[in-house]
Amino acid sequence: MSAGPELWVGIEPTVSRVGDAYMDQIELSGFAQRLDDLDRLASLGAKRMRFPLLWERTSPQPGRYDWDWADGRLARMRELGLAPIAGLLHHGSGPRHTDLLDPAFPEKLAEYAAAVARRYPWIDMWTPVNEPLTTARFAALYGVWYPHRRDDRSFVRALLNQVRGTVLAMRAIRAVNPAAQLVQTDDLGHTSSTEPLRYQAEFENERRWLSYDLLCGRVGRSHPLWKYLTSSGAGPSELDELQRAPCPPDIVGINSYLTSERFLDHRLERYPAHLHGGNGRDRYVDTEAVRVLGRHIGGFEARLREAAVRYGRPLAITEVHLGCTREEQLRWLLEGWRAAQTLRGEGVDMRAVTVWSAMGAFDWDSLLTQARGHYEPGLWDVRGPEPRPTALARVARQLGHGIRPNHPVLSVPGWWRRELRLIYPAHGEVQAREVQGGRPILITGATGTLGQAFARMCAVRGLPFRLLTRTELDIGEPASVQAVLDRWQPWAIVNTAGFVRVDDAQNDPRQWRENAEGPAVLARACAQAGVELLTFSSDLVFDGRQDRPYVESDTPRPLNAYGEAKHAAEQCVLDAMPHALVVRTSAFFGPWDRHNFVTLALEALRRGERWTAAEDQIVSPTYVPDLVGACLDLLIDGEQGLWHLANDGAVSWAGFARLAARMAGLPQELVQGVPCATLGLPAPRPAYAVLGTERGRLMPSLEHAMARYLREVDTGLGAAAPERVFGCLTRGEDVHDVRPELGPREAANPPLQPQRAQRAQGG
Length: 763
What we know:
CATH superfamily of the largest domain: Glycosidases
Number of helices: 23
Low-confidence stretches: 717-763
Largest sheet: 8 strands, parallel, barrel
Shape: elongated
Number of strands: 30
Helix content: 25-40%
CATH class of the largest domain: Alpha Beta
Radius of gyration: 28 Å
Structural class: alpha/beta
């Protein structure tokens, strides 16, 4: 057995149906249009791709097939040496002429599989149905996806239809290619519980195996769930048939997500009311084990060991995905890879690890039930004119080519290994690993809003850092910079220091040293030392004379001294260090300081006072948590050059105050809009300073940001300690939050059914 598993890749391909509305992930991510995405995937060193030959897309009408899209892509994959694992149904319900409860569903799926096999007889690995158990739960037990049923009989029928469809599909495929192999995927989440709920946990832990057990012919009359299945509509004869003529997977594909691990707790008083549920016998809470269980979750290694013992067949991790900040995505991938390596070292036939959602995914934060356009990136970020490789692509490429990953953020354990993961009273003795060692990020500007925000977010994201005062680091003094680099050996510097008083800058020579000369000194030192640099510029480098948002390639023409210094800094930094990251942004507001425009305006309005602001100066406000989160992701990705980062929206300062007032339920009429010229500001401002981007829109909308600002302030989180601010995400909270996230597939909390609901797994 070779030293390491193969690297496989996959894109999120779900064609989901909610009511009569379909959502096609391949179209949303642009994979449907970009043939060269296959070249990107092959460049990682991947051996195989879970390739979507989806029924709904290829044959929406019975007996009619459109092969053009698949023909071109499969031909290119053969040229690249990227072998397909053909997937026919992925969390879908099939074309409109069928559904998961259709008695003819298995035969219809097999008919489609036969047509695909005849078209591509050389394909040697197949997944006719992805995650049949998970799909059956969410479509037929929890009512989330079509056909929106919520009962055990529907769940069992949807599961058996998918399993029997897989059996018939593989028969049809093997009639064309007898060597065709079945790679069967499903989620293997484990359930723990308090003692009174052990019976429910035992049921859950048996049910998770059903798709594999049925295919392997293990469901006989002695199976623990025989009675449940037959009492829920499964015919003994159909179960006997699956046992007599099994279709065992050639490779057991394991998908595991952070909240696949569940915890059942009868102590309702420990949890908010919206988590309370039950099974008809007992009332209890079903929550993520990572958030309450003292010991660490089992994760990939535990689930793989269970599957190896139970089936004794070749294994693969068929999805490694985490919807979270970039460093946590990297840590989760490495954890999966190391688990596979460990089992291979013990002699388990561990074939591959699949990096999932290569081009990202849309609207999994609502379990695909709302088309809001929420996007989470994967190995590539598709929000720009071309897919942009993230740090995940870099690490995956290293794994695919047998190189040990070397990103500095990998020296820290993932948040699921650290104590901040706990948001409820811990059950049992707490196991935790804390951030230790590792090369730090140095943050300048310790007393400023932005410096403090970076420190907060680095703390919760497990990014070792040092927040430096001017006494500790004078960015305008080369000797001071060099001494700090020598002492701390950082991998990156985030420069938030500077002279921020725009009007005072008109006549204060100190601003030039802080805003122009200091960043240049940092750039020269970082370039020489091989240290990454992130520094900030402003919308005030523009003169405001155009009538569209400014993008990165627009020519700066500052109107005031502050803008001139910032423009000079941009030029000097990028001349000295072309791979530096320079972020233009504007109009900060956030929950962690009381001196920003929104906070002061709302305080005045709450007192019943008028608030005066410019009506003729248009800006693009920036929510500080969004800005810092996006900047850290870009820094980890190794991005460089100029980027514009501001929330999506353009308002006057007066309009900004009215927006805040409206969303806070305060009287908008107290906001008085006036011409900027009447405010007596010494420094001229551009009338229109809206920041757009041609590189990729990474920031959510202004209204979205304002809603989160108000929530943070109203709940008192804005003034709390970092671990309180960042450590309390629960399912249903928005994935733009700055806290450690459970990911889009873990965002919803369906109502509990007799056999307990849990969040969607897989992609």
